Amino acid sequence: MQAIVKNGPLNLTHLKRGESGVLDRLELPEDDARRLMELGFVPGHTVTSAHQAPGGDPRVFRVDGSEVALRRETAQHLILRS
Amino acid sequence: MAECHDASVGTIPASAGAANRVVALIGPPNAGKSSLFNRLTGLRQKVANFPGVTVEHHLGRVQLASGREVTAIDLPGIYSLQPRTDDERVTHDVLMGKMDGLPRPDAVLLVLDSTNLARHLVLAAPVLALGLPTLVVLNMADDLAKRGGGVDIIALGAQLGAPVAMTSANRGEGVDKVLQFLEGATVSPHPVAAKVQLPVLQDIPRCREWAANIGAKGKYRPPAPPLWTRRLDGVFLHPVAGPLVFALVVLAVFQAIFSWATPLMDGVSKIIEASGMWLGTQITNPMLKSLLIDGIWSGVGSVLVFLPQILLLFFFIGILEDSGYLARAALIADRTMARFGLQGKSFIPLLSAYACAVPAIMATRTIENKRDRIATILIAPFMTCSARLPVYALVINAFIPDRPLLGPLLSSRTAMMLGLYLLGFVAAILTARVLKSTVLKSARSPFVLEMPPYRWPTVQSIVLRLLDRSKVFLRRAGTVILGIAVVLWILSSLPLQNGQAPQIAQSFIGQIGHFVEPLIRPLGFNWKIGIGLITSLAAREVIVGTLGTIYGIEGTPETVGLQQALQSDLTLGGAVALLVFFAFAMQCMSTSAVVRRETGSWKWPAIQWAYMTSMAYGCAFLANRLVSLWWS
Which domain holds residue B165? Predict the structure, then answer.
């Protein structure tokens, strides 16, 4: 999935629809990170990009058996394992 | 404590008084906790608010086979017991016995979604660590089985050190096992297994690992992905079809609350009218008759008329929410709402506000971000609620000649009405922008929206929801509105002149009208409109009835007599100013009361009232001036 080499690490917004990646870390304030982890965004888990709202933002991600929508501004702080 | 450690579940809770045992239902959102609660309690439930916080909970009585009754509390949906949000704090305090007026629960029903067990089991750790007799309820068992998943509840129970039951609460399956548990757990403390390793929920990854481990030992097989949900999302979240469906849904809701509700509302108003007439024939004392019929009956009746519309609105919101579509709608609306500093979850409350701001403000509870929620609450009353309709109809019919603008499609009156709707909407979004870039600027907390699988809404849950809302609404009509109706009647019937009720101009209310006249003169209003404005501070539509009383004409917007009376008393400028005033002013005590309840203080309703009323005054003044200049 890391076909294109980008500057810096890949994050959730780089996933195209249907692509998956393994979550490495959440670069967010502790409370926000904790809230996302409670919903399944735990480092080491596989995240799949699913549907999108019109315009491509927010996007739905499949993680740990559920589907959660995040805005781009949040998803870009969820870094994938390279 | 950032590590997992041992915690004993073996503590035996001090047994409470034999009479009233309490069981608490806890679980993550969307686990079907409320369906189980509805199954257990049926109609024997009520909504209550915890003191000091804006968290709503349900209390109900469960009838056990032995004939005993147990009190059940349905607590808010949570993912952890860390007291960070209001919901979590309330759940934490209730479970620790720290909530005023509520004894510590004697037992706990931990309701988890069996189709998402590994993740939901994370909550089991802190809950079981409390040491209360706990039944772990794995709900949505039918879904799990259908999608090829499974779990060994004996093995899982052994791992958790607590009994486990499978239920499908929306079909009522497995509820008997829950009742059996309640029978035992609330008589004598349930024997708990010796010692189980439980992590403390600080380090989520480790707790998630613990949950996965427990799940594996409980032979948990996760179900296949929900096929139907994927298929439906293929349509509902399709780049083209999705927004189309969304627009259709919004239109249907609109159509329902305006067109379909009309015959029902007419029916209610006929019933009120007929029963008032009948009541009139039964009472001989003219004073009492006037108080009952002109005061109470027509005052309360003018509000009761809106009940069918509000119920219809809640019926649709209920179906949208229970089916899972509401989350999709919020997703689609998010980008547009974000432009005004709001978010997707604000959309449905604002749509509801077109019927009535009161249910809309209650519907903002789904918005976790406190500032977004307050912003939504503050702008909701700008949306053109149905109480404004009779006023708009009266003034437009009296002053705007009916001319076709776009052939048969759009007449001048319809255009005026649409313009007023647009005016309210524009005021709302501009206010939102101002608020969100100043006083309510958020520390950006992430927008997170869970997409639950689609489910069939159950009749029981919808009916209970409607009953709930009717009770809230009727209580309001029976207290606030009733009180105002009585006060108004007294003020307009006193002081007595020669033992007779006075002419309206000489009554107390007439004197008040004359007193405020200098203040509203610049808007083009005279003292009679002034009385109408004062009475409409209670509820907007009251002005129609008040003007009817003042002019001595039965007050309905269709009445030609009332329109003619208005034409002789208002200039065109004054009429437009009146419309603009009603578009912006915060004339609804019920809304202020509900804003106070939902925000926890009088600060926000006071700011809202002052802001909206001054905006109404300023804009009405401008409208009067501009129209007067234009037309003279």
Answer: 21-224
CA distance B82 to chain A (A): 11
pLDDT at residue B194 in the model: 41
Are A70 and B222 a contacting pair at CB < 8 A?
no
- Closest chain A C-alpha to B332 CA, distance in angstroms: 5
Sheet strand arrangement including A59-63:
A78-80, A20-26, A46-52, A59-63, A66-70, B448-451
How many domains, in total, are found in chain B? 1
Closest chain A C-alpha to B103 CA, distance in angstroms: 29
B40 part of a folded domain:
yes
Contact A31 B79 (CB under 8 A): no
Helix (H/G/I), strand (E/B), else coil: B43? coil
Residue B190 lies in a domain: yes
Whether the CB-CB separation of B122 and B79 falls below 8 Å is answered with yes
Task: pLDDT band for B9, please (50, 70, 90 cuts).
Answer: very low
Average pLDDT of chain B, as a whole number: 82
Q: Is residue B98 exposed (0-12), middle (13-18) or buried (19+ Cβ within 10 Å)?
A: exposed
Token pair of B123 as six digits: 């909550």
DSSP secondary structure, B115-155, as one string: GGHHHHGGGHHHHHTT-S-EEEEEE-HHHHHHTT-B--HHH
Nearest to B222 among A44, A65, A74 (CB): A65
- Residue ranges of chain A whose CB lies within 8 Å of a chain B CB: 28, 31-32, 34-40, 42-44, 50-55, 57-58, 60, 64-71, 73-74
Query: For the structural domain made of A12-80, what CATH number should be given?
Result: 2.30.30.90
Rounded to the nearest angstrom, the minimum Cα separation between B233 and chain A is: 8
B21-26 and B107-113 beta bridge pairing = parallel
According to the model, what pLDDT value does residue B199 have?
Answer: 60
From chain B, the residues in CB contact with A13 under 8 A are none
Question: In whole numbers, what is the pLDDT of chain A averaged over residues?
Answer: 87
Output the domain CATH number for residue B153: 3.40.50.300
Neighbours of B523 (CB within 10 A): 25
What confidence score (pLDDT) does residue B559 get? 60
Does residue B88 sit within a domain? yes
Is residue B234 scored above 50 in pLDDT? yes
> Which residues are paired to B24 by β-bridges?
B73, B108
B271 at the A interface (CB within 8 A)? no
Cβ partners under 8 Å of residue B69, min gap 6: B61, B62, B63
Contact between A82 and A2 under an 8 Å Cβ cutoff? The reply is yes
| Confidence band, pLDDT 50/70/90 cuts, at residue A43 | very high
> B536-557 pLDDT, tens per residue?
877 787 787 777 777 765 555 5
* Partners of residue A50 in chain B, C-beta under 8 Å: 233
The answer to whether B212 faces chain A, any CB pair under 8 Å, is: no
In a domain, B124, yes or no: yes
In this prediction, residue B8 carries a pLDDT of 33
B124/B128 Cα distance (integer angstroms):
6
pLDDT one-digit tens code per residue, B366-420: 787 788 889 999 999 999 887 888 888 888 888 888 777 776 667 787 788 888 9
